[in-house]
Every structure is written in C-alpha cells, then in structure tokens.
Amino acid sequence: MIPDNNKALDLLNCYVKEQSNLDHNLIVGYGMLGIAKYLEKDETEQNYWFVAGVLHDIDIEEYGDCIEKHCIIGEEILRKEGLSKNLIDDIKSHNDVLNIERNSEIRHALWAVDALSGIIRAYVLMRPDKDVKKAELKSIKKKIKDKSFAQNVSREQIKSCEENLKMTLDDFVDSVLKEVKENISFN
C-alpha cells in the first residue's frame, strides 16, 4: 500500500513526537514533493515521493544512537502499517550504513534532500523570526558554501543532485525551498 498524503502525515504524527524530528521529516517530505514536481512526475508519483520523504525517519525516536538499526526499525513499523515493499526499500536506501544501492531518481533525491533539510532547518532556526517563508535561495546557497555552518551536513550529499538528478544546485534548492515555504511553518 502507498498511503495518501494525509495518511502519511497521520502515521508520522503517530510515531514521531519531538518537534525537531517532525520538522525534519516534513522538510524532507515537502522537499521530495518539490523535486518530483520539478522532474515532472505525475500526481501518483508526486504522492509516492512525498510519502517516502515524510516517513523516511519514522523510526528516528526509536533507534537512538545506533545508526545500524535506523530504517530496520522503520521497516518493521512501515510493514506493520501495510506499506509496500518498494516504498520501504526506497526509504531504507537513504541510510548509508545499509549499503542499499541508490539506483533510481527517488533514492538519489531522498539522499540529497535529507542533507539539504539540515541546512534549511538550521538556517530558519538562526533567524530571529524563525520564518521559513522569508528564506531565500541565495541565503540557503550561502549557508551551503559556508562549511562552518551546520558542519555535520554533507555538502557533497546535497550537490549529488547535479550528477544523479541532472539538476543544477540552484534548481534543486529552489524546488525544495519553494514547496517547504508553501507548506511548513516552524514554531
């Protein structure tokens, strides 16, 4: 089963309680939707990409510091909820430790958007108004270049969009940011 967007959001809220974790999953979900739209995926695929992004870290509050369990616990949760094997496999591919081949656009996108979400969230939280709607492409790109900002975020992972998705960094960041700004506000 591939849940619709509302069901995916319900699942997320059922398993993820901490606001920062919810924010991360929402950024990735809406970011994936933005990339799917840019790549001109049909509505069914756009839903699939959104769901993969929103649920990619559904186990974030379960695996603790054991990254080896990340996505394995998530797989158990998503199977229990009746999600399709293909969707689960696509989600699992973003955890490098599992060594799952990224052999499709959605897998490459999920990996890159996951990293970009760290830059976007850190940028918004440093703003006095915490307003993502005021975030601009040039500001996010500047933070990507600044290696002292959000140091644990892999810039190479973000820039993989150029080779793996055939998108410029500007188009990639803009597509993610546009959808995030339209759908999310931070508290």
UniProtKB/TrEMBL annotation:
Q: Which SUPFAM superfamilies match?
A: HD-domain/PDEase-like (SSF109604)
Which Pfam families does this entry report, sorted A to Z?
HD
Please report the stretch or stretches of sequence annotated as the HD domain: 23-101
PANTHER family linked to this entry:
HDIG DOMAIN PROTEIN, METAL-DEPENDENT PHOSPHOHYDROLASE
Q: What is this protein called?
A: HD domain-containing protein
Q: What is the source species?
A: Methanococcus maripaludis OS7
